[in-house]
Design goal:
Blueprint: H1 8-21, H2 40-52, H3 61-66, H4 70-80, H5 98-130, H6 136-165, E1 172-175, H7 179-193, H8 195-200, H9 204-212, E2 216-217, E3 222-223, E4 235-237, E5 242-243, E6 252-255, E7 258-261, E8 264-266, E9 271-272, E10 277-278, E11 282-284, E12 289-290, E13 295-296, E14 301-302, E15 307-309, E16 314-316, H10 330-366, H11 371-401, E17 411-412, H12 416-428, H13 432-437, H14 442-450, E18 468-470, E19 476-478, E20 483-484, E21 488-491, E22 493-495, E23 499-502, E24 505-507, E25 512-513, E26 518-520, E27 530-531, E28 548-550, E29 555-557, H15 573-613, H16 617-645, E30 652-654, H17 658-668, H18 672-675, H19 682-690, E31 694-695, E32 700-701, E33 705-706, E34 712-714, E35 719-720, E36 725-726, E37 729-732, E38 735-738, E39 741-743, E40 748-749, E41 754-755, E42 760-761, E43 766-767, E44 772-773, E45 778-779, E46 784-786, E47 791-792
Parallel strand pairs: 2-4, 3-5, 4-8, 5-9, 8-11, 9-12, 10-13, 11-14, 12-15, 18-21, 19-24, 20-25, 21-26, 25-27, 27-28, 31-34, 32-35, 33-36, 34-39, 35-40, 36-41, 39-42, 40-43, 41-44, 42-45, 43-46
Antiparallel strand pairs: 1-7, 6-7, 15-16, 17-23, 22-23, 28-29, 30-38, 37-38, 46-47
């Protein structure tokens, strides 16, 4: 029996939903997903139609999941919101100039070539002065001194450039592509391309390095994030604070037409969780905590002693600092920092320097023919030798060292066991080998070799994506039948400014884990769960089973819908056997193509570098600089070539459909790691266009990742911030889905934001930092959205 419509809101909602579902009428008490067969894409379209009606309360996807019938939804939103709900409009885009855009690109290219040229001249002069014609033991000692001196000089260059070109950073706005922006870009590029901060992460040396750049860093601060801050004079970190891996605290952000610079202030004993985002003009008081997968939007402040989580963050009672302190003296930190510097200067640098020199000598003694043959030999030995060495080391070294670390035991920082913990974590977070084996059946064998506990396995051919990391693989287990998309980060460690502890993490069976999920020790998820994209996995409260979780903080959603189960018949029996065998053969070919194309890129760089070494000094620096540019162009052309050879991404298909295998092939060949050299320059737009993105004029790209270039449209004068992900597809259980994405002119997408397929952002709209804009959403013109999942702010 159909329930009677009682209110005008119910009637309007029913009419709009019927239009989306293409049904004559919709019962107001029918469940959106279980009874009507809707999915999140259709319900996002329903929400967009509701927002376009000015006489109805606004509806978000979170409202839809919390109230999954017309009647309950109408009652909830009518009581919670006024009929017309408008957000404060974001500030207008700053106009930019085509002339300045061209001039900026010319100056950036000139700086890159000039800096490379001077660097090569300085290296040659230093080598001739310090090493020269020395032989025997004297030569070895002088080579060590040359390497150590060179490293220290390289470390000092960004510091000197920052003080000479900028002085002290102050809160202000910089118009994109202006001369002031060029100075900003030079300093940012030098800081982020310098090896020193990446080698100093997790050690007492990092705080000293940031102080040299102008930051206010207290004693005993521990920073594990590889996201290097730029506007450091505006960064203040109190004593005893912990900043975990991949936290963003750059003290600047891109907005349409400008760079906005502002402070980030952290009091003493603050805890910032894994992959959190601290936007400009944010602060945390003494002893405050911010959970993992959380964000402070601009203007937010966490009072002293309070715990917050979510995106944007809100108050919570969850305690994220879960390891007791240990004794850690100033002397211990000083010894650790000194030993770290000595290891870098007299082990890391000489190994790199001597290894390349020995390789060149060894190949030259065996290959006496032309330059091309020498380049082929050197690149082949270098590339495939490193792949084989890495594959052996990643399985052997952590196994040997794991005996020194016991689970659930508290150890002090900066001792032998802390070094062991960091080495195991470093090997377990290597990127190349998971990329090589990911999205195929072979990733299971690789992860077992690494130490993951995966027995028994139900092989699907897509058990894991190409980005999968953990802190300690020997304490990480995944249940039978679980499938994991790209971006899984298992952090089975708890850490304070003085101590650390590793614990076991076990994912239950028959789970599906979406993109970019951070999975902590003590996670409260059990069997048969769906963990949505960018979800905050809870660590306190009840254990979830048989449901889905979405958002930050998380809330329950259906485990699956009808649209996701249409290909289930291909996942069992003879159909699975045939489909899996065919997928394995295709994926093996993809791995071969990946290795061959990557090696040819290395060959191209080696060939140009060898030519540089045989040229006069006037051309040596230019050729060295050109080798990196040539590699980026080459890898972009490789991806575009295979995009053209394969079919377009299908709107929906099984993972055993050959069209999906072509998508996996293009994923593996994506050149994003070679494009970051061009972040913040006009040349990045050229490369995106080269691989198929319809890219607008004067777009500021500070490090965006675009998964499906041919499905993506970017309007003029947009701002795409660091760690932004534009993903025009998804894989859920055994089903692949894709759809187009349109970002209008003058739009801004904040740091760490994720935009899914089927999305339209109209002109001038803004998506705040760390937001998740769900599939099918439409962001109205000149509106500001944010949150996980995103809604109008």
């Amino acid at each position: 029996m159909t329930a009677v419509i009682e209110t005008g809101v119910e009637a309007s909602f029913a009419e709009l939903l019927a239009g989306v579902l293409r049904k004559g009428q919709v019962p107001v008490d029918s469940h959106f997903f279980d009874d009507l067969g809707a999915d999140s894409l259709l319900m996002a379209q329903f929400c967009a139609r509701v927002r376009k009606r000015g006489d109805l309360p606004s509806v978000s996807m979170k409202d839809v999941y919390a109230h999954p019938t017309i009647r309950s939804l109408a009652g909830a939103v009518a009581a919670a919101h006024p009929p017309i709900r408008r957000s404060a409009q974001p500030s207008s885009p700053t106009p930019t100039s085509a002339r300045e855009y061209v001039l900026c690109g010319a100056l950036q290219a000139s700086f890159y070539l000039g800096f490379s040229y001077l660097g090569v001249l300085a290296a040659i002069a230093g080598y001739q002065r310090l090493v020269g014609e020395a032989a025997g033991v004297t030569r070895v000692v002088r080579l060590l001194l040359f390497g150590a001196t060179g490293f220290l000089v390289v470390c000092a260059i960004p510091i000197a450039a920052k003080w000479l070109l900028i002085g002290r950073w102050k809160p202000r706005q910089i118009r994109l592509w202006s001369l002031e922006y060029v100075r900003f870009w030079i300093v940012k590029t030098l800081i982020r391309s310098n090896p020193a901060p990446y080698l100093f992460i997790g050690t007492p040396l990092y705080g000293l390095y940031l102080r040299a750049l102008g930051a206010k860093v207290g004693r005993g601060v521990l920073i594990l994030s590889r996201r290097i801050p730029v506007c450091t004079d505006l960064l203040s970190i109190g004593a005893g604070t912990v900043i975990r891996r991949e936290v963003s605290f750059a003290c600047y952000r891109g907005q349409a037409g400008r760079i906005e610079i502002g402070p980030v202030t952290l009091g003493p004993n603050v805890y910032v969780g894994e992959v959190a985002v601290l936007d400009i003009s944010t602060s945390m008081g003494d002893g405050a905590q911010l959970g993992h997968t959380s964000a402070l939007h601009s203007g937010q402040a966490v009072p002293a002693g309070e715990r917050w989580h979510g995106s944007p963050a809100q108050r919570t009672d969850v305690n994220y600092m879960r390891v007791p302190p240990a004794r850690s003296s100033t002397w211990r930190r000083a010894v650790s920092g000194t030993l770290t510097l000595l290891v870098i200067l007299f082990i890391y640098v000489p190994l790199l320097e001597g290894g390349l020199d020995m390789l060149s000598v060894w190949v030259s003694a065996r290959v006496v023919t032309g330059l091309v043959i020498r380049a082929l030999a050197i690149s082949f030995v270098l590339f495939f030798g490193l792949v084989l060495l890495g594959l052996l080391a990643i399985g052997i070294v952590p196994r040997v060292l794991s005996a020194f670390i016991k689970p659930d035991t508290v150890y002090p920082l900066y001792g032998f066991r802390y070094s062991v913990y960091r080495i195991i974590g470093g090997f377990s977070r290597m990127r190349f080998l998971p990329l090589l084996f990911g999205d195929s059946s072979y990733i299971v064998h690789f992860l077992r070799w690494l130490g993951w506990r995966l027995t028994p396995v139900v092989q699907t051919g897509s058990n894991f994506g190409s980005e999968v990391t953990t802190t300690n693989p020997f304490l990480t287990s995944v249940g039978t039948g679980t499938m994991i998309a790209d971006g899984l980060n298992v952090f089975n460690d708890d850490i304070s400014s003085t101590s650390f502890r590793v614990s076991r993490v076990a994912m239950g069976p028959r789970n599906f884990v979406g993109n970019y999920v951070n999975y902590p020790a003590g996670a409260k998820t059990g069997d048969n769960c769906l963990l949505g994209t960018k979800v905050m996995v809870p660590i306190e409260g009840k254990t979830y089973q048989g449901v889905g979780l979405l958002g930050s903080p998380p809330f329950e959603i259906p485990r699956s819908v009808e649209r996701d189960s249409r290909f289930d018949h291909l996942r069992t029996g003879e159909a699975l056997r045939r489909g899996l065998a065919a997928k394995n053969r295709f994926n093996l070919g993809t791995i071969g193509i990946f290795l061959a194309t990557r090696w040819l890129g290395v060959f191209l760089m080696v060939l140009i570098d060898l030519a540089a070494l045989q040229s006069s000094h006037a051309f040596t620096g230019a050729l060295f600089a050109f080798s990196a540019v040539a590699a980026a162009i080459y890898y972009a052309l490789v991806e575009r070539c295979f995009e053209s050879l394969g079919p377009p991404p299908p709107p929906i298909c099984s993972i055993y459909d050959s069209r999906f295998w072509w998508v996996e092939r293009v994923w593996k060949l994506h050149p994003i790691n070679f494009l970051h050299l061009f972040d913040g320059t006009p040349f990045k737009s050229v490369l995106w266009r080269l691989i198929g993105v319809r890219f607008g004029k004067r777009v500021f790209d500070d490090g965006v990742f675009i998964s499906e270039p041919t499905l993506t449209v970017i309007g003029d004068e947009c701002a795409l911030n660091q760690q932004t992900i534009l993903q025009c597809d998804s894989q859920e259980d055994g089903t692949y889905k894709s759809g187009p994405m349109t970002i209008g002119s003058g739009c801004t997408i904040g740091v760490g934001a994720f935009v899914h397929y089927g999305v339209t952002m109209e002109d001038g709209s803004v998506l705040a930092a760390d937001s998740f804009l769900m599939k099918g959403e439409t962001v109205p013109r000149a509106s500001r959205w944010g949150g996980n999942p995103a809604r109008e702010l």
